[in-house]
Structure formats: structure tokens, C-alpha cells
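User: For my dataset I need records formatted as: sequence, then C-alpha cells, nothing else. Please produce one.
Assistant:
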Amino acid sequence: VQLQASGGGLVQAGGSLRLSCEVSGRTFGTLAMGWFRQAPGKEREFVSAISWSGGRSYYADSVKGRFTISRDNAKNTVYLQMNDLKPEDTAVYYCAADPTGYGNVVRSYDDWGQGTQVTVSS
């Protein structure tokens, strides 16, 4: 199983980025997908998740109203649109797969991508 995250970069505060995560080796349409992030010196934290069908999505309070998760099952890809970025969003962002299909239980995620760096300058 491979989860390939991309789209990170350096952006000024208030800017936008779109992360992508392409999945291979599993039946993407049955997986819930999530995004997590880890800032230097901090624990990894949940950012957002989307159920297998895309019918349910979840967000951390810190990103609600600014980030949007979506998926394209035909492309085996999940996206995270990040708007109005803040310096505190700076972190390595990881995508992960949840075989239960629901996405709302962190311990259910069992495959992880390599991460993509997002840096927001003030």
C-alpha cells in the first residue's frame, strides 16, 4: 500500500495550499481518509477526515471554516484545501487510510503516507 502526499510548500499567512494524497494498492473507494499534522516538538494531531463515500467529513476545531477535505474515488485521491493559512498551521501533514470506512476514530487508521511539509510565514 502506498499513500503519496504532495502539495506542501511555503506560503504567507492568509494564503492557500491544496494537498493531495494518492492511494495505490488498496480499494480506495472503501477507505475513509484522514489528514493529520505534526509540528516540531509537538505530537501528531488530527486535522480532517472523510468517510469512504464522501458523505461525512470531520474537522479539528482549529481548522473549521478554513480547510476543506474532499475525495475523488475515480482518481484514488483525497484532497485538503487549506485557506487563510496561519503560522500555527506550519507542520508536516500526513494522509492516512482507515479501512473501516468511517474515519472518525483515530486508532482505526492503519496506513500512513510519508508527509508533506507546509510552512506558513507571518
